[in-house]
Amino acid sequence: MAPAAHPEEFENTFRLSLSRLGLPWVDLLSLHGVNDRETAEWSLQPGGCLERARCWQREGLCRHVGFSTHGPADLVEELVAGNRFDYVNLHWYYIFQEHTRSLEAAQRNDMGVFIISPNDKGGMLYQPPDLLKNLAAPLSPMAFNTLFCLRRPEIHTLSIGAARPTDFDEHIEAVRRLPEVGELLPPVEKCLQQQWESSLPEGWRKTWQQGLPHWSDSPGQANLREILRLHNLALAYDLVGYGKMRYNLLGQGGHWFPGKSLADLTPEEIRPALKTCPNPEETLCRLFAARNLFAGEKKQRLSKE
Predict the structure, then answer these.
(1) Of 109, 189, 231, 265, which is the most buried if we count CB atoms within 10 A?
(2) Strand 62-68 to strand 26-31: parallel, antiparallel, or no bridges (unpaired)?
(3) Which residues pair with 88 in a beta bridge?
(4) At 185, is the pLDDT very low, low, confident or very high (cuts 50, 70, 90)?
């Protein structure tokens, strides 16, 4: 939702949508894309999106008001912990657990939690590399990720991106095995952790994020942290296709996926930004290894294709 410059326009659009759906109300009304401080301000300011949504809730036009986010961990936790919303849609899965504190805050505030795109953004698990298949056995990578998410008591719903009815089958089978997570998941988690540790030197694993500038302060606004995260995953789990997809989306995703790729930046341009990293030269080397591995045709967000 954009800032409420024309609230009557939003009112008319919402009521028209209900009419076209043939519904007197909807269960869930979400403020979509509260991804940064600007969109948070649009949502929370007096007369803003949240206030308008609560008015519709009081009128009986919606049952619950929540928000979706691709935002940074500190902002998401702040919004969730503020006890302003009824539910949240966010990213959290095995290869991205940065919003764990937000899950915990959501449970404290009795909020519903919907996990966005655990199959696609969680590693393109509908076409996993053979290495990941072997590590996840006897489960498939997608079934493992489903169970890994649903094991958390804070999580209630996953989106699965089904393109055909049979795409539900693997998830239905995974849910059927939910009572077995105590036996099924620990051996797989152990294999994944051992692979992570054997693929990335201990010093790098423990310090790779330290000293990196925020993307907005980086040369060319390159999202150095995300580029290194993708490279780590490619080295550990052979998630090269996933890394290429995400790397080439940088610069195309706006506040949904902020920052840019390395593009044509040179080592001389980047080196000064790494001066507070524990090992600037190793960081620089790994950044350019990531570019060599991932760089390709630019991608767009699915909503733009």
Answers:
(1) 231
(2) parallel
(3) 67, 113
(4) very high
How many C-beta atoms surround the C-beta of residue 72 within 10 A? 16
The pTM assigned to this predicted structure is 0.91
Give residue-wise pLDDT tens across range 122-142. Answer: 999 999 999 999 999 999 999
**Pair 52, 88: CB distance under 8 Å:** no
At the fourth CATH level, the homologous superfamily of domain 7-192 is NADP-dependent oxidoreductase domain (3.20.20.100)
State how far the Cα of 265 lies from the Cα of 256, in Å rounded to an integer: 23
State the pLDDT at residue 297.
66
Q: For the chain, which residues make up each domain, given as ranges?
A: 7-192, 201-299
| 3-state DSSP helix/strand/coil % of the chain, to nearest 5 | 55, 10, 35
Count Cβ atoms within 10 A of the Cβ of residue 141 and give its class: 0-12 exposed, 13-18 middle, 19 or more buried. Answer: buried
Secondary element (H or E) of residue 20 = helix 7-21
